[in-house]
Amino acid sequence: MLRFNDIIYGPVHSRRLGVSLGVNLLPQGGKLCNFDCIYCECGWNRDGRTSEKMPDAATVTSAMEKSLASFMQKGERIDTITFAGHGEPTLNPDFPQIMDATLELRDRYCPDASIAVLSNALTLDRPGVLSSLRKADLPILKLDAPTTAFMRAVNRPNVNVTVEEIVRNLEKMEGDFIMQTMFLTGAELDYGADREALEAWLDIVRRLHPRRIMAYTLDRPAPSEGLGKMDSAAIRRLLRPLLDEGFDIQIN
User: Fold this and answer.
1) Do 6 and 70 form a contact (C-beta atoms < 8 A)?
2) What are residue 213's DSSP bridge partners?
3) Residue 8, helix vs strand vs coil
4) pLDDT tens, residue by residue, 128-167
């Protein structure tokens, strides 16, 4: 299981984000998420329970400034400041204040870096979350499943939500976001084996028309057994209709 013991970690070399400085807004050493995905590299939610609290805006800002100042002094390059960590970063109630502070620190210490947020989009209806995500250079919002039944099987939300509700919230981004989808084999939702599910997902993409699609597959061990990595060529074949329609698709 992937765990970070600091608020700021890395930088790590990301296949999608380059040299990425990670920011964990969730309890250190634990996991907190409103999804419990079968493929999550941080493991099951039940194994990440902790008495630790989420860091507040002042604590995060202090840690980030210290780290960015150090990298600037060393002349080290940062491509992306990435909110990810052990679960859903927008669950931190100080997320809007933290985003504003991050924008200021980025402009001061590494103005060429992008700010990315990896989110499952379940909190877009919370005060301040939507507007904060729209301030990020790279709001990367997950949508793995085209139906609520598949979402419950693959993402296992711990809140009562439907895919249609998530899609309606994503429409508020007006296409100015990056849509991220996991492609698996051996799972209940295998787009290579379920043409009807694939067509439904393609229709959602057309409806939302995100500025980019990140289609990715397993990179680290998953908590659920029997899941497999989908070959990038196979993903490309599945997404050929969107590629032919001019969608910007990044396959990893």
Assistant:
1) no
2) 179, 249
3) strand
4) 999 999 999 999 999 999 999 999 999 999 999 999 999 9
